[in-house]
Amino acid sequence: MKFSEYIQYDGLGLAQLVKNKQIHPSELLETALQRSNLVNPKLNAIIIPMYEQAKQRAQQNLTGPFAGVPFLVKDLFQEYKDIPTSYGCQALKNINYTPDFNAEIVNRWEKTGIVTFGRTNTPEFGIKGITEPDAWGTCHNPWNLKHNSGGSSGGAASAVAGGLVPIAGAGDGGGSIRIPASYCGLFGLKPSRGRTPWGPQFSEAMHGAAMQHVLSKSVRDSAAMLDAVQGPEQTSLFRIEAPEQKYLDVIQQIPKKLRIAFNTQSPIGTKVSKDAIQAVQQTAKLLESLGHIVVEDRPQIDGMELAKDFVTTWFSQFSYMQAQIKQMAGASDRDFELDSIALAAFGAKTTATEYIHTLNNWGLYSTQMNIFFEKYDLYLTPSTASVAPKNGEVATPVWQRPILKGLLKVGKAHYLAQGKLVEKMVQDNLSWVPFTQLANVTGLPAMSVPLYWNKHGMPLGSQFIAPFGREDRLLQLAAQLEQAQPWLPQYKHIQI
């Protein structure tokens, strides 16, 4: 199969060709590998190849909705047995960490018949909204190689948008599916708390704020994959009611007339670009043309307080993770990025009382969203505050680096997280991506839909948040939007 033909299909489309015996999985894999060999040196999306394993699997009798479809997994919490795994971290890369188990999400993906041929780039431990790890280098955006692909599922987004695969594994703890989806012009859904599994290592991640799913070109690929992997396992702490209908069936139905609130103001008071505002305004007009009611409104939530509560939990959880990695890898601070060391230092100083207070606040935000959804069916915002930043543009402020190094040297880095400086840190960390954390903290399902490209050809997504457990509502609307304003034709403009 020529690439020009391969790129026209989504995952289910390629699987149908295999089912009809019009093409063999090994031929699809060869096309994907040729594309990878051509453009991955420019993108740096795949960092750990699995080519030989993939070639062997492509010869097997594969079954499932994605039988024979080339696939990639994220190099973070998506372990393959006997395949090196780094979490984007030099410490694990140094010891060639190789797990002796499959993550449960990987087992479920495998049952769909996919053929995985590599692991994708991610920031160290997935803690940033960009993918520029010291361990592996920058992941580039296919729409413009001078720009970043976003994070933390940046490698996955770059690979899908760059035509290596139609669908790839991703994860979202603070926007890490929706941010790269926005920057790379893809469809990205973060499921509700507990919808997809975290075993066998964990029962959940960050109190259910972090969830695993995929990035895809089409809505139906995302729906079909969620059908295949959703539901608890033995280790699951959070158990969610199964959907009444298959998501793939739901998206065949036209959604009811929806009442949708929208807002374009940053919840933390930072700048929102004209592109982001125009993206939402155009989406609102499209929704109205489809018969939906669109109203400007926002939940009664203090966005800065939510952001501070999010980063308190995030830093604390990361501090625990880093300590575990240090012990397992025999690593020291020298084996981690400066930002990672600093965040871990902040998190280590959070007291139990402060942590419980933060979690209690998470519950209050969930209550406010429940009240908000008594009036509205969905909440619309920009997915990101702007199009993708240029590579190197999002970095620890120059003024902070020598201060951080000095404070770390004397064990006082946590001082930066006190008083008014914590607000400054929140704004520095989240100003590019202030809209996504709300859904993680509250455990609500949310999606980024690619409906806008600016005059320079860079995409920016529209984010929709739904009530708990209502992925069906999101997917159904996304399918309607995809039909009304198809985004796949935009891909002819990618020149790599």
Structure description:
The structure is a single chain. Helix content is 40%, strand content 12%. A hairpin with a 2-residue loop joins strand 4 and strand 5. It is globular. It has a domain of 277 residues: Amidase signature (AS) domain (Amidase signature (AS) enzymes, Alpha-Beta Complex). Strands 6-8-7-12-13-11-9-10 form an 8-stranded mixed sheet, sandwiched between helices. Strands 1-3-2 form a 3-stranded mixed sheet. The model has no long low-confidence stretch (mean pLDDT 94). The chain has 496 residues and is an alpha+beta fold.
Topology, element by element:
Elements: H1 3-6, H2 11-19, H3 25-43, E1 46-49, H4 51-58, E2 70-74, H5 90-94, H6 104-111, E3 115-120, E4 140-141, E5 144-148, H7 154-161, E6 167-172, H8 178-184, E7 187-190, E8 211-216, H9 219-229, H10 247-250, E9 259-262, H11 274-289, E10 293-296, H12 303-329, H13 338-348, H14 352-372, E11 378-382, H15 400-409, H16 421-430, H17 437-442, E12 446-449, E13 462-465, H18 471-484
Parallel strand pairs: 2-3, 9-10, 9-11
Antiparallel strand pairs: 1-3, 4-5, 6-8, 7-8, 7-12, 11-13, 12-13
Helix pairs in contact: 3-4, 9-18, 12-13, 12-14, 12-16, 13-15
